[in-house]
Amino acid sequence: TKDGYPSFMAKEIQEQPDAVRRTLQGKVDAQGRITLADTDIEADFLMGLKKVIVIACGTASYSGQIAKYAIERWARVPVEVDLAHEFRYRSPMLDQHTLVLAISQSGETMDTLMAVRYAREQGARVLAVCNTPGATIPRESDAVFYTQAGPEVAVASTKAFLTQVTAVLILALYLAQLRDVGVGAEIGDAVEELRGIPEKVKQVLASERQIKDLAGALAGAPAVLFIGRHVGYPVALEGALKLKELAYTHAEGFAAGELKHGPIALLEPGQVVVVIVPSPIGSPILHAKTMSTIQEIKARGATIIGIAEEGDSVVNTWADEVVALPPTHPLLAPLLTTVPLQLLAAHIALARGMDVDQPRNLAKSVTVE
Ligand code: M6R
């Protein structure tokens, strides 16, 4: 049931702090170390791992892109991310030292299932990250990490995405711990920060009023661009996908550094650009680069909405509107920066009179290839 919320979407967005908390439960021991005791994957295999390939579709694939940044940074294992429907057709190189991470909320997505079967035939080990107990993908995988979002009813994914990001961060930290690659102190800090994330997600949800007003002003916009760097890039892709799905507004997400390689031609007065801004303290170099991109956008007269860390005075000078978020570790930032984009898409859709739970032409799980 909707428990008094106007839509499943609204309810599922609000459930995110609990969904993330449940996904973390039992994964951090009293010493602050990650344990994956209930995930049936041998430590020996993970220690000898040569490569990780993530396969997924849509929103789940963006959590896969975040996995790449986290696993490479913390565990120092090369990661490739592939859309499941592209994977088999590029003759991927896999062997018994490859871990394939199949991320799927429903566990029934046919494209992802076919990729899982192919990977296992080629001798790779498949770990499913799934939200649906007993679904086909986890049944056909070697091991499974269940996200604990609870049933997700709205067609557009929200809480499942946040728990997928949580799961891949846990996995990256676990791999780093096992492989002992010399980033020990950072791992400890990140684990500590992860435990505090549900509370910060709750704080971000408190910005709903501001975002609703913003959505009212943007409801008539013919197109919205989303840009980000590093983990902000997949978040930009997710923000654009949410807006397309829910509001049927043309939206495009791209890496902020790409702007000058083409998309800048789209900028003119009235064009709205949502910028995911890295932390000035946690990621000063990326922050400075994003600021110069913001100035280029401003010079073309476009409207800038910044999703930024609270107290970021530089972004405040340049952006037309800023949604301020609590500070966190740079790799954990998607758990916060995604939330205002979900709210923005949902409120633009509502302002345009759309059904946010059941957008046109879409199904909750895509069981055809
Ligand atoms: O159930 P899955 O996670 O495998 O689904 C993958 C995509 O179909 C799904 O994330 C889709 O992109 C959503 N509608 C996004 O909101």
TrEMBL record:
GO molecular function: glutamine-fructose-6-phosphate transaminase (isomerizing) activity
Residues covered by the SIS domain: 41-181, 214-359
Catalytic reaction(s) noted: D-fructose 6-phosphate + L-glutamine = D-glucosamine 6-phosphate + L-glutamate
EC number: 2.6.1.16
Signal peptide stretch: none
Active site: K364
Annotated keywords: Aminotransferase, Cytoplasm, Transferase
Function: Catalyzes the first step in hexosamine metabolism, converting fructose-6P into glucosamine-6P using glutamine as a nitrogen source.
Subunit structure, interactors included: Homodimer.
Name the UniProt record assigns to this protein: Glutamine--fructose-6-phosphate aminotransferase [isomerizing]
Organism: Paenarthrobacter aromaticivorans
